[in-house]
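Bumping my old thread because nobody answered last time. Still need a sequence for this structure:
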């Protein structure tokens, strides 16, 4: 039987056939945890008396807060270092850079291999034809202890890029065009394979850029066939084939709040900017640094603006130094930071203040993701050009004189409450419905990254939804046993376990959604947080209706309307994990 790339990778790492929809155990070649999740991984291991399966395949990567500028980050990093010394685990410490890039550049991850990390963009491994998956701390703890973890074999979409873009377009512009096509959930639950003349000519840096944004489309992974790696069978049957015309396209940009809200740069040209960020796992490579240096050489950042540049790894930083790029950046007035995730994480440079307008080369611009400002997503070239101009523009349209600057408006508040967590494992629950008629509620809206250093689950509930417009006071109003009913792609975004555990801390009995983000779904199942799928449910249940839910049958009964609806019941695996209190339970 003909197989896709992901089926071949799964079968080579399993004792089972990898048929679409099957749930099988996969051996993991590379098992990593970052500084914000590593301490919780250790907590899960030690709390369940688990030892490491293979220290040689196990790694810490400190890339979220290389400076250790936050006390809790610094504490977590030290916890990880002590554990690593005791157990012979390698640490890519604060001077190394982004973990998912390091495993590629250090030849730790191989084409056709498997890697898991607490990084939701671990799927950049698709750039070398390997399988990468971001996971929560329980998943990672299981992989560290047992060397294997369960996966549901996904269907595959074949993406064919037709034509060639303009000379001003970069891989970032092409992947933004893909986001325009697929939206925030068009690849939800799918793997994808990339083909086309443009794809064949991409450098590794370009493939990394495109692979890294699979998460923003809801995808599990975007895989690029490699010469010496895994390839799909020629006669394989794909779930669907999508052709995207990229002929002649130029620079693209995503408007604030939504990576999928993509337009041409021309449509927003002239919008004044306060700052720019170049870096992240999407655009911190040498190709990106050279493109930026070409634009900044002999120029200055516009007055009263700030441009922050962060290479993805220390090797790239040093290469920039050798080639004279650091001098170009500094002469232009840019701030150059140590290698790492930077603006995508709360602990390092790249954050924005209230009312600030920024252009970023990152992968996400969710509300609150990089601070309190409004973030446009674009290529490094567009970011650099816009910061020289003082307004959004392209590299070929930089004016001789920059624009003047305006004044920001200050908004936003943070709420707080604390509740004790209580665990129970009934298969039938009743409660008051919170119907939230929104799609693509991301993990920063659920549980903002400024709280990621919190490891005590009892502290997490108070911050639930405080970054979701209209629900900032949710944590104060929710009652134990309440039921959340939401739309599509709930929990898209990062791999943070806290976005699940905060609901457990509040005593929420079940989350019913039309669909879930892929990583979020795993995290919820593995931590025994009840979640269920139900089509068009937000149009059926009314806010604050009293409803009952049966996890085993999928029956939802609305007592107020006296109507019964059907959700997808727990799978055998989900029910088993739920009943034993989580993936690591007995």
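Sorry it took so long. Here it is:
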């Amino acid at each position: 039987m003909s197989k896709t790339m992901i089926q071949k990778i799964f079968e080579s790492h399993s004792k089972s056939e990898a048929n679409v929809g099957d749930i099988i155990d996969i051996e993991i070649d590379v098992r990593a945890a970052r500084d914000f999740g590593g301490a919780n991984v250790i907590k899960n291991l030690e709390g369940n008396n688990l030892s490491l399966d293979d220290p040689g395949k196990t790694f810490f990567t400190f890339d979220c807060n290389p400076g250790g500028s936050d006390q809790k980050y610094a504490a977590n990093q030290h916890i990880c270092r002590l554990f690593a010394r005791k157990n012979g685990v390698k640490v890519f410490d604060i001077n190394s850079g982004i973990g998912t890039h390091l495993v590629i550049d250090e030849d730790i991850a191989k084409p056709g291999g498997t890697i898991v990390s607490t990084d939701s963009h671990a799927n950049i491994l698709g750039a070398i034809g390997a399988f990468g998956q971001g996971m929560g701390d329980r998943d990672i703890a299981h992989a560290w202890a047992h060397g294997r973890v369960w996966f549901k074999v996904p269907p595959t979409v074949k993406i064919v890029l037709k034509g060639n873009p303009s000379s001003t377009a970069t891989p970032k512009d092409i992947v933004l065009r893909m986001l325009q096509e697929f939206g925030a959930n068009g690849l939800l639950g799918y793997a994808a394979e990339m083909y086309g003349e443009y794809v064949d000519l991409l450098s590794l840096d370009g493939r990394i850029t495109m692979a890294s944004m699979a998460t923003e489309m809801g995808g599990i992974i975007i895989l690029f066939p490699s010469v010496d790696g895994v390839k799909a069978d020629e006669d394989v049957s794909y779930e669907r084939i999508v052709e995207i015309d990229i002929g002649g396209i130029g620079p693209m940009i995503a408007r604030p709040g939504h990576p999928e809200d993509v337009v041409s740069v021309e449509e927003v040209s002239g919008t004044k900017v306060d700052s720019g960020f170049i870096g992240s796992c999407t655009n911190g490579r040498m190709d990106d640094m050279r493109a930026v240096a070409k634009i900044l050489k002999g120029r200055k950042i516009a007055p009263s603006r700030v441009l922050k540049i962060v290479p993805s790894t220390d090797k790239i930083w040093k290469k920039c130094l050798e080639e004279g790029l650091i001098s170009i950046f500094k002469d232009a007035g840019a701030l150059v930071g140590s290698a790492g995730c930077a603006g995508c994480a709360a602990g390092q440079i790249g954050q924005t203040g209230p009312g600030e307008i920024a252009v970023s080369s990152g992968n996400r611009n969710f509300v609150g993701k990089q601070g309190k400002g409004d973030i446009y997503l674009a290529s490094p070239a567009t970011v650099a050009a816009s910061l020289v101009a003082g307004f959004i523009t392209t590299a070929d349209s930089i004016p001789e004189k920059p624009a003047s600057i305006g004044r920001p408006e200050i908004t936003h508040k943070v709420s707080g409450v604390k509740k004790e967590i209580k665990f129970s494992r009934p298969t039938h629950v009743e409660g008051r419905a919170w119907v939230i008629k929104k799609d693509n509620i991301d993990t920063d809206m659920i549980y903002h990254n400024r709280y990621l250093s919190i490891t005590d689950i009892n502290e997490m509930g108070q911050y639930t939804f405080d970054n979701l417009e209209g629900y900032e006071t949710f944590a104060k109003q929710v009652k134990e046993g309440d039921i959340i009913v939401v739309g599509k792609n709930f929990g898209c975004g990062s791999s943070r376990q806290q976005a699940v555990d905060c609901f457990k801390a509040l005593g929420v009995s079940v989350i019913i959604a039309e669909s879930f983000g892929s990583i979020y779904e795993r995290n919820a199942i593995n931590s025994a947080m009840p979640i269920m799928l139900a089509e068009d449910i937000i149009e059926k249940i009314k806010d604050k209706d009293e409803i009952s839910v049966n996890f085993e049958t999928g029956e939802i009964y609305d007592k107020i309307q006296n109507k019964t609806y059907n959700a997808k019941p727990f799978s055998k695996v989900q029910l088993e994990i739920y009943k034993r209190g989580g993936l690591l339970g007995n």
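The two ends are 38 Å apart (CA to CA). Let me know if any region looks off to you.
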